[in-house]
Every structure is written in C-alpha cells, then in structure tokens.
C-alpha cells in the first residue's frame, strides 16, 4: 500500500524546487495534493499528469502567502474543497540577503511575513480542522541557518529560527489532540534559491558538507514523506536536519 493513500495534503511553494519535489513524492504515494504558489506554474501540467497516472488529483491554487487577507481566503476555500487536510507543509519561502547594518526594513518585513507569519496564519486555519478530527501532520520548512545563524542573512535566519520555536510551541498545544508538528532544516539544496549564488561560493559551501554534494529536492521530500506518513506517528516537536552533515 502507498504510504499516503487516502490522505490529502496542502503544500505551499509547490511550483519549484523543494515544494515541487514534495508534491511529486506525495502524489507518487497516493496523496491528493493542493499545491499553493503565487501564480500559474510551469509545473502544473506535469503534476496533473502524474496525479492522473497515480489515480489521484493535483489542484494548483494561488495566493501571496505574505498577504494575510489573500492567503487566509484562499486557504479557507481549499480547506472547504478538500473537507480537511491530513498533512500541511509550510514550505514557501524567500531570501532578501544583505548585511544587517544596511538592510532595508522592507526586506526584513517581507522575509518575516512570507517565511514565518504565513506559517502561523495557514496552520491556524488548517490545524483547527485537524484538532476537531484528532489527526494531522504539520511540517514546517526551516533551514540550517535557523539553528546556527548566518552572516548576511539576519532576516532569513530570524524567520527560520522563529519557525522552529513556533513549531515546538504549536506542537505542545496540539499534541494532545492528535496533531503532530515537525520541522525540516535543509542545508544546501540545489534549487532556484541557491542557483543565484556565484560558482565559487557554491563550491565553498559543498566543501563544508561532509557528504560532499548539494542536497536535492528529493532528499527533502523523502523526509517530508516520512513525517507526513504513519511511519512517524510518535514523532512531534522535532527538528530534522537534512544537510549532508553540514550542521554537525
Ligand atoms: P525556490 O526554488 O525559490 O521556490 C520557492 C517557492 O516558494 C516557489 O514555489 C514560490 O512560488 C513560493 N513562494 C515564494 N514567495 C511566495 C509568496 N509570497 N506567495 C506564495 N508562494 C511563494 O525555493 P526552495 O529552494 O525550493 O525553498 C523552499 C523552502 O526551503 C523555503 O522555505 C526555503 O527557505 C527553504 N530552504 C531552502 C534551502 C535551499 O538550499 N534551497 C535551504 C534551506 C531551506 P512562485 O514560483 O509562485 O514564486
């Protein structure tokens, strides 16, 4: 039996990179998936095709997760359409890097709203329903820099560190109602987000990874699958590093 058969998931940031990898993995395991991104994606057709092959559905939906009103409306509509999600993956995220002393407040605010506040807003809507049903798995996408910090990324690191503290606190609130909340902390993963880095910086980062390679969206998706599935029913409030040993 497929690991997510008869389950329904909402995955944010589904159009590219890690989010797309998670959607593919979930569809392959028999899950019906609502993928949220900011605009119609190049992945939509392929994901719908994959879903049809697996006998499930893929729904692409659109919202700016940094816009509270917009994302609330869209997630509420998706929740009603799905009649409840078993799994929520808060994965959408951005970087606006720069040194702290010259960072614009706008770049601080955007990153906090899109990476952190969105997880609070979406989880609030989805977890209310999970609590009523006494089941659910919420997975929040943090980062290795949310644990260790990183010069040049004070806004991003604060958003990802905040996501860890938020997740552990939410896990304490909802655990008694059968809802689990866990965090994935990826290291250096090859996606559009890291592709903007110069080649020498990428090589230097890979040199710091004990496994000597960049991670792939599938490396992260495998962990998301584990946390979404019934293989992890006694795991909550955890931060799982998927970083090739980089954070050690
Ligand atoms: P990516 O390739 O840049 O993709 C970002 C995704 O987020 C896209 O689907 C994008 O949708 C969506 N998104 C961004 N802003 C949005 C908004 N305002 N509203 C709705 N959707 C929005 O990034 P990635 O590398 O896959 O990263 C995914 C997550 O993993 C992020 O939270 C990131 O911080 C985290 N992470 C990544 C790495 C890494 O090395 N790549 C490491 C640690 C953590 P559109 O296509 O519609 O813009």
Instruction: Return the string of H and E elements.
Output: EHEHEHEHEHHEHHHE
What share of residues are in beta strands? 15-25%
Q: How confident is the prediction overall: mean pLDDT?
A: 98
Number of helices: 9
Portion in helices:
40-55%
Strand order of the largest sheet: 3-2-1-4-5-6-7
Number of strands: 7
User: Regions with pLDDT < 50 over 5+ consecutive residues?
Assistant: none
> Main β-sheet, in a few words?
7 strands, parallel
What does the overall shape look like?
globular
| Structural class designation | alpha/beta
| Ligand species | NADP nicotinamide-adenine-dinucleotide phosphate
Give the end-to-end Cα distance, rounded to a whole number of Å. Answer: 36 Å
Over all CA atoms, what is the radius of gyration? 17 Å
Structure in words:
This protein is of the alpha/beta class. The protein is built from 9 helices and 7 strands. The protein is globular. The longest helix has 29 residues, at 105-133. The protein has helices at 17-28, 44-54, 68-82, 105-133, 145-148, 154-174, 192-195, 199-207, 217-228; strands at residues 8-12, 32-37, 58-62, 87-90, 136-141, 179-186, 239-242. Helix 3 runs parallel beside helix 4 (105-133) and helix 4 packs parallel to helix 6. NADP nicotinamide-adenine-dinucleotide phosphate is lined by residues 13-19, 37-39, 41, 64-66, 91-94, 114, 141, 143, 186, 188-189, 191-194.
